[in-house]
Structure formats: structure tokens, C-alpha cells
Amino acid sequence: MAKIAVIGTGYVGLTTGACFAHLGHEVVCADIDEAKIESLRRGEVPIVEMNLDRFVAEGIASGNLSFVVGAAEASKDCEFHYLCVPTPQGEDGSADLSYLEIAAAQIAPVMPTGSVVVNKSTVPVGSTGIVARVMGRNDVSVVSNPEFLREGTAIDDFLNPDRVVIGSRDQEAAIRVAGLYTGVRAPVMVTDPISAETIKYASNAFLASKLSFVNAVANLCEAVGADVNDVVLGMGYDRRIGKEFLKPGPGWGGSCFPKDTIALARIAEDHGYDFTFLREVLAVNEEQFDRTADKVLAVLGDDPASASVACWGLTFKAGTDDLRQSPAIEVLKRVSAAGVKIKAYDPAVGGQLDELAGVEVVQDPYAAVDGADALVVLTEWDEFRWLDFDKVAESMPGRAVVDARNLLDRSQLERRGFDYRGIGR
Ligand code: UGA
Known about the structure:
CATH architecture of the largest domain: 3-Layer(aba) Sandwich
Radius of gyration: 23 Å
Bound molecules: uridine-5'-diphosphate-glucuronic acid
CATH superfamily of the largest domain: NAD(P)-binding Rossmann-like Domain
């Protein structure tokens, strides 16, 4: 079993560390945030992520998982060094590599000879080479091993992946990294670092493109009178298309798709290729936010400023407390700009949000609909389907429901006199 340092304890780093510990490796996770390390040592996981708290607790109990402050402290005794630091979007759309460069510079002087540094952060094409240059050590190898973890199902995605991609010019280092995944049943693909980095970006941008396409198809369905639920079902039976990632919605978001799609367009431009297709994918998504907000405003009549709207769902998708680039927030900003009073509920959001200053966040779905003229569903939390709609009908003077995730049972609502509007149907 190997000794692995994981630098950065965000959802990628913590999942990677906890899962490698689960596979039997000895893992030391590092972060610069002392308070976070203190609470992780007590087994307190700061994010909503299915089973992560259990895996962290098991890792601590077995002695396979520990937490330290500072990258150098973690790396000094390890043979593998996973870089899992953020690569936020810089002002010009390109990824900001400063956290990665700082982490690489910190571990460079302490890593034992023969170590393998593994880039797991999503980094622009060529970054594995940048890390190698920053470290300036020719007795260690630098490889790329991109992650394909979805928030909310990250543990399952790590342990049951569709593939493991390793980008390395050093065959021996690639084989050693592949060995860390013993026990994980998946094809392992070894390629060069630039191709591995491109696989990560192209995968995210492709999935984002698929969603923009599906959202455009939903809009077409509204125009021609088709039902998008049936249309995507019929499309998904074709194995070349596949059933997944075909759900239309208020637009796509999160900490990865918007940032990575913009960054890939930027990478292409920097290398002399105009990837116009991706600009259209992004534009369709912005339009989807606008269209969803317009749908809400349309049911409010001529004077939206005197209307009040209930919103269920704020996170960028269900199963997470992550609000970064949330389509729900994009839509609510637009609705709120028309002067509409909004009360919002989300099972994973505890208090008021700075980015939605005018929106009152309440702690109960029924409190949100109390006095509302319309209800809009913006995140697909399953529990919304099982609420007491008689109670909703009593609390809500209005009858309009805009279901931007096609989540609720239309017939149940219509039976209670609601005017139900989904997406693409
Ligand atoms: C995404 C990718 O799915 C992961 O493979 C990747 O590793 C990760 O980014 C990353 O780069 O770290 P994530 O951002 O957690 O994962 O979220 P997704 O489940 O992909 O959802 C992204 C957005 O698409 C959400 O707003 C979601 O609501 C929307 N979506 C997803 C739909 O509107 N319809 C769908 O059918 C699926």
C-alpha cells in the first residue's frame, strides 16, 4: 500500500483522500485552512456530500487517513502527491493557476526522490509541464490524473468510475499511479499529459453542450407542441446518444461546467483555434436563464412589482449545498430585478444569501408558498415531490406553478386547480 499526500481538502481532495484511505492506502490530507483541518480531524466534513462523512470517519478510525496544515508537512514522507487545489476562473476567462503553482513550490523541496506528483485539479492544457518546471526536480515525475467526480455522488464516482485516465510520459510512473486504483474496476487509460488534460476539458464541455442542446430541444418542443420528456426518452434509447444528461432545466451551472467551458474556449483561442461552437453553447445557457425568468414573470401579469413568488431550490443541483454558478440564483436575480417579492426554500441552505440580497430565505417549503402568487421549482430535490399539495394549495393564493426541472406530478397539481407549466411540454 502507498503513502499518499493530498494537497487541498475541497470536495475533490477530500473525496480522493477518503477513497484512497478506503482502498487501504495511507493518506495525509493537507490544507492551508487551520480551522478546517482541526474540524476534519474531529471527523467534521464541511460540505454536503453523500457518504463522505462516513468514509472520513472510517479512515480516521483505521489510521489510514490523517490531516495536517500545509502542503510540505503532508508531502515530506510520501511517495505520491495529489494536487487537488482550486483553479478558479481568472478575469480573462482562463484558469488561475496560482494555487497550483504555490502548492508545487511548497512541496518541491521536501519530496523524497522517486516521488510522483499527480495533477488532479482541472488545469489548462500544458499545466503538467508548468508544475514540473515550477518544481525543478528531475528526480520526480509529474503526471496528470483528471477527476470525473460529480458533486453529490463523488464517492461512488471515485470507486466506480467509467474510466481512470493517466497522462504521463514516464511509463513507470503511470504504472505506479494505476496501481493506486487496485480494487477499482474500470478501464485504465494511459496517454500523454496534454491529451489527459484535454480529455478532462473536452468531457465537461461535451456534457455542457449536450445540456444546452437538450434545453434548446425543450424550447423547440414548446414551440411545436411536443413533450420533451418523451422526446428525450425516445432519443436516449439510441445507445449512440445514451439516456444520461438529457434532462432539460433552467440552465446548467456549478463550479465546473461554466468555468471549464469558458476556459476551453479560451485555450482554443490562445492556440489559434476559434471554437465558436462553445460560445454558442454558453449563449444558449444564458438564454435559458432568461427564458426561465420570463416564464415566471409571464404568469405574474402586468404588474410583477406587486406580486410575490415562492421558490423551491437554490443549489446548482440536488444533493449538494453548493450555490456556485447556480442556475436558480441566475433565474432569481432576473425575476428579482423586475421588483418581484421572493421567498425561497432549499433543504441545504440555512440563511440569507449575499448574491440575492432582496430574496428572503425561509426554512420551510410551506412558509415559502405562504401568500405567494406563483411557485417556481429551480432545483430537483426529490423531497419536493412528496410535499402536501393540499397544504400548498391552502397557503398559496395564486395558482401558477413553473416547474423548471419537470419534477412535480402535473396531474396531482392540476387536480388541485393549479396552472402547471413545465419545461418543454
Ligand atoms: C461535473 C461533471 O459531471 C463531472 O464529471 C466533473 O468531474 C465535475 O463537473 C468537475 O469537473 O469537477 P458537477 O459540477 O458536480 O460535475 O455536476 P453535474 O452533475 O455534472 O451537473 C452540472 C449541471 O448540469 C447542474 O446545474 C445540473 O443541474 C445540470 N444538469 C445535469 C441538467 O440540467 N440536466 C442533466 O440531465 C444533468
